[in-house]
Amino acid sequence: MQNIFLCNSKPKAFREANGELFPEAPLRCMFEDCQMPVRMKKHGFYKRYIITYKYSGYICIRRYICPCCGRTVSFLPSFLVPYFQYAFPYILAFLNGYFKRRQSLRKYVEWFKRKKDGFNRRHFRYYINRIFLNRSLIQYYLNLTDQDMIANEDAMASRLFAKSLLEKIHAVSPQYLSWNFFNVTGKSILAPVQMIS
């Protein structure tokens, strides 16, 4: 299991295993089928690769273990998205820049690669599709947090939806929104959507 915590430290600060950067161990097990009221124990660190504007490399992630059920929880700083290499603010800046520049995706990617190598068209399509597929969950979150709901008429593939969402995220702060979204919905804003059959 992974959990996101609000963090103001830069990614470079996490290069070394430093327990002071992470929150205290949870007071009860975070797994729904356990939830024993026993403080979880520190269970070491693991390394994870991350790509940001100014730092690309490994960072250390703290793990906690439940003394009752034996399962572990990893605590991710709010600049991370579970299972993604690119940092959340980096992904959002790329997407936001594309919608503001009003040029073809091919030209925007070429411009971006000259500025900062990394993203390509497949990355963009992947991330924007995740936002479109998570639209219902995103609208649910926006309603719960008293922000303006994005109108349903803006069809699934609408640039207006993505542009409006990205503006809202930047108005709040990408890291705060990532952390708050996870706490409200239990999922990352870019989490894969489970299709119901």
| Gross morphology | globular
DSSP helical segment count:
6
Round the Cα radius of gyration to an integer and report it: 18 Å
Residue share in helices?
Answer: 25-40%
Q: Structural class, please? A: alpha+beta
Order of helices and strands: EEEEHHHHHH
Cα end-to-end separation: 25 Å
Pfam families: DUF6431
Organism: Oxobacter pfennigii
Domain DUF6431: 39-97
Protein name: DUF6431 domain-containing protein
Describe this structure in words.
This protein is an alpha+beta fold. It folds into 2 domains: 2-77, no CATH class; 88-185, no CATH class. Helix content is 38%, strand content 16%. The chain is built from 6 helices and 4 strands, in the order E-E-E-E-H-H-H-H-H-H. The protein has a 4-stranded mixed β-sheet. A hairpin with a 4-residue loop joins strand 2 (41-51) and strand 3. Helix 1 packs across helix 2 and helix 1 packs across helix 5. The radius of gyration is 18 Å and the shape is globular. The two termini are 25 Å apart.
